[in-house]
Design goal:
One of its GO terms (biological process) is polysaccharide catabolic process. Keywords: Carbohydrate metabolism, Glycosidase, Hydrolase, Polysaccharide degradation, Repeat, Signal. InterPro entries: FN3_dom, FN3_sf, Ig-like_fold, Quino_amine_DH_bsu, Striated_Muscle_Regulatory. With about 675 residues, this protein is mostly beta strands. It folds into 4 domains: about 10-390, Methylamine Dehydrogenase, Chain H; about 400-480, Immunoglobulins (Immunoglobulin-like), CATH 2.60.40.10; about 495-580, Immunoglobulin-like, CATH 2.60.40.10; about 590-670, Immunoglobulin-like (Sandwich), CATH 2.60.40. About 0% of the residues lie in helices and about 40% in strands. It has a 4-stranded antiparallel β-sheet with strand order 2-3-6-7, with no helix packed on it. A hairpin with a 2-residue loop joins strand 10 (about 120) and strand 11 (about 125). The longest helix has 9 residues, at about 10-20.
Length: about 675
């Protein structure tokens, strides 16, 4: 079982139920989200927690940047805000914690954050923090502490619940004291509530305050709570004292067993559970008695479950034939809550582990993980599945550039930030040669470029572009002007496909050759700056080579680049901007994950996002800071069989190349089973 696997929010399910009207245990599946995700911005690393609130969706995990559909990256370290209506991230929200964030919860204007960090938004906070939800600023008075990174944070009224592998906790300004597995703090002062004291005998992975306000559901690896052996994996305790609630006797949650519960969602009179164990299970249970209504066995752990429109969406590590309920499913499946029928909802989520977190609002299901594609849709780290009401036209195309030629104008633009939940079908290019009172359709295209060959020389045109999906036509892009000329030659076209790559003590630029404009290209000009949108002429090259290596750099500094082409007539329009950060030659850290099973802990990790300019030659695995394995570069898995049941082990991995070793990965804690 992994430490950083918690789906997040806790107040949201009740709000969802109120909006959708789920007051009974189930009902007809009146609304369902599409199996095709929206094409939006994503992340460059694993998403471990998601918390949607209106048109702001808080996203957290191990990523260091967010990416737009055109492939550009923007700094965003481990905690960011996604805006569903635009498909973009809010780049002004940047608390930048110094280590991974594993869980989130929102209450009013406050965002509660848990993880492995020791600083966030410039303030020292040990594994827990309270932020201003709109700005990301730290609340200076709220500073509880736990001694191990939490798995789950939940908020109910004035109470903040925290669960995880910790043994000690302290309120704001207090001293660590014994408080294993689960604790409760005041949401305003951060004081530790010692009057609430449930006693699970092992780790709490999920906390869900009940809709009735009188009790709290706990999920985890525990086998008893308050000495009761009936409370195995799932428990209902008093919100006043923490004592086990009488009458709640959970049934078997995964076939004939009661294995760990990773996530709990309440909808009406039922709980919906993400269960581990021998494979895993998605299970519906009576919220009062614990009687199981239905359970769907899987061939991998469940990580999250959400209910929207009478449908339970179940996500996790299951895959392939027999992956879910003996059917072929890849990391995501859906069940009619009323009948327990598995629905023909079968998006294919790639990557070995796929889904690590889930959340929902009234019309959307969000999943987070380490995937890069869902069916044919490229989508990294975060995906949004909307219902019919949530689908819209695409966002407007952006960054339209028009390069005039001889009786032609070459146009290109960026892919919209979101397809509105319906796949983009084509673009329409319009132009006008008058006072913009009439716009004529020039042509349509399925890609983000078009050459207008009907343009008349010595005429000034203005252009704009729209995008179409099944919902309709987007708003137009910003307008640009161009004036084709019958001159024997013109300035070259815009260099295309600029790629900037940080390497060992240098940045490497490459691009593609543009149209010459009728006069041979004699060289290129490279523009550089340390602030986006503020590049100046930096270097010139001669000849037709389409690459440049910038060695006058400082390691760790972000440089922004643009390139233009030059011929005898003049200089082209500058290319779109790209950036790179020169490295010290060391690889970036791998992203480590793991799963505990009986008698062994299985580790897997990603290839470093950057090799530092020198190929990775081996990986080194450490357990509790002691090296336990050295593996070739072709191997990115390792199994630790020397484990003791009930003992927690901290694993890290680093990559090695000819120059040296990468930083260690984030720690993954696995408990022997």
């Amino acid at each position: 079982m992994t430490r950083s696997n918690r789906p997040l929010t806790t107040l949201l399910a009740a709000a969802i139920a109120a909006v959708v009207g789920l007051t009974l245990a189930g009902g007809p599946a009146a609304a369902a989200v599409t199996a095709t995700p929206s094409r939006t911005w994503g992340t460059n690393g694993r998403v471990l927690a998601i918390a949607p609130v209106g048109d702001r969706v808080y996203v957290a995990g191990d990523f260091t940047a967010v990416t737009d559909p055109s492939g550009r990256s923007y700094p965003a370290t481990r905690l960011a805000v996604f805006v569903p209506s635009t498909g973009r991230f809010d780049l002004g929200f940047a608390p930048a914690p110094d280590a991974s964030v594993t869980t989130l919860a929102v209450s009013g204007s406050s965002l509660f954050v848990g993880g492995a960090f020791t600083t966030i938004a410039g303030a020292k906070r040990k594994k827990l923090a309270k932020l201003v939800a709109t700005t990301g600023a730290v609340d200076p008075t709220w500073s509880p502490v736990v001694d191990r990174p939490p798995d789950t944070v939940a908020v109910s009224g004035s109470r903040v619940y925290v669960g995880g592998p910790f043994a000690q906790a302290a309120g704001s300004g207090g001293v660590l004291a014994a408080k294993p597995w689960v604790a409760r703090f005041d949401a305003t002062s951060g004081s530790l509530d010692t009057s609430w004291s449930p006693t699970p005998n092992d780790r709490v992975l999920s906390v869900r305050p009940a809709d009735d306000g009188a009790s709290v559901y706990l999920g985890g690896t525990f086998t008893t709570v308050g000495g009761s052996t009936t409370q195995r994996g799932i428990s209902r305790v008093s919100a006043t004292t923490g004592a086990v609630t009488a009458g709640f006797v959970p049934g078997n949650t995964n076939q004939t067993s009661k294995p760990p519960v990773y996530d709990i969602t309440q909808s009406g009179s039922r709980l919906y559970l993400a269960v581990a164990g021998s494979g895993g299970a998605c299970t519906a249970m009576d919220a009062v008695t614990g009687a199981v209504a239905w359970s769907k066995h899987t061939n991998g752990n469940l990580q999250g479950v959400q209910v929207v429109g009478g449908v339970a969406y179940c996500g996790g590590h299951f895959t392939g034939a027999g992956g879910f309920d003996n059917l072929t499913r890849y990391k995501l499946a859906a069940v009619d809550t009323a009948t327990g029928t598995t629905l023909p909802y079968a998006p294919v989520v790639n990557s070995a582990l796929g889904v690590w977190s889930m959340a929902a609002d009234s019309g959307r299901v969000y999943i987070g993980g380490d995937f890069t594609q869902i069916d044919a849709t490229p989508q990294t780290g975060l995906a949004v599945f909307g219902d019919d009401a949530a689908r819209t036209v695409t966002a407007a195309p952006s960054t339209l550039v028009a390069a005039p030629g001889d009786a032609a104008v070459i146009l290109h633009w960026d892919v919209p930030s979101t397809d509105g939940g319906s796949p983009l079908q084509r673009y329409r290019v319009y132009r006008t040669d008058d006072a913009a009172t009439t716009w004529a359709l020039v042509g349509t295209t399925t890609g983000p470029d078009l050459t207008d060959t009907t343009a008349v020389n010595d005429t000034t045109y203005r252009y704009r572009v729209t995008a179409l999906n099944a919902v309709g036509e987007s708003a137009p892009s910003a307008e640009v002007a161009a004036r084709p000329s019958a001159a024997a030659a013109t300035a070259p076209g815009v260099p295309g496909g600029l790629v900037a790559t940080g390497t060992y003590n240098a940045d490497r630029l490459t691009w593609s050759t543009p149209a010459s404009g009728g006069s041979a290209i004699t060289g290129y000009r490279v523009y550089r700056g340390t602030t986006s949108g503020a590049t100046t002429l930096y270097a010139s090259t001669s000849g037709t080579g389409t690459s440049f290596t910038d060695t006058a750099v400082t390691v760790g500094t972000r440089y922004y680049y643009r390139v233009s082409a030059v011929n005898a007539v003049g200089e082209s329009v500058l290319s779109p901007e790209e950036w790179a950060v020169p490295t010290n030659g060391l690889p970036s850290p791998p992203v480590l994950s793991g799963t505990a099973r009986i008698g062994a802990n299985d580790l897997t990790w990603t290839e470093p996002a950057k090799d530092g300019g020198s190929p990775v030659t081996q990986y080194v695995v450490l357990r509790d800071s002691i090296r336990v394995a050295v593996l070739p570069a072709t191997t990115r898995t390792w199994t630790d069989t020397a484990v003791v049941r009930g003992t927690a082990y901290g694993y890290r991995v680093k990559a090695v190349n000819a120059i040296g070793s990468s930083p260690l990965s984030a720690t993954v804690v696995l408990t022997g089973q």
